[in-house]
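Annotated sample (chain length 106).
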Amino acid sequence: MTHEMILGLYVFVLAAFVGYGTIRGVPPLLHTPLMAFTNAISGISLVGSIVAAGAEKSNFSTVLGFIAVLCASINVVGGFLITDRMLKMFRKRGSGAKKGAEAKKK
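Output written by the structure step:
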């Protein structure tokens, strides 16, 4: 193992512990906004994977970059769909019907 690989592994393990501690400390009421924020941050991984796919270092790195783009896209889209579904649970029933009725009056 090279020195850079050990340093990268150390940063990964440290980030995992910090992330676990952060999520564990957040009250359940704030999980939905936190999830929406992390979905936005997942866009960074999508940009990074696009850069990795387009670097054209070798065919293997291009294939890995394409797989990373695919997985990051699924993560971002799926995360936003789940967040939208969770936010719908907090809306009052019938509020959409009132807005529709008000729009028809105008």
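Annotation: The chain has a mean pLDDT of 81.
Annotation: Residues 28 and 34 are 10 Å apart (CA to CA).
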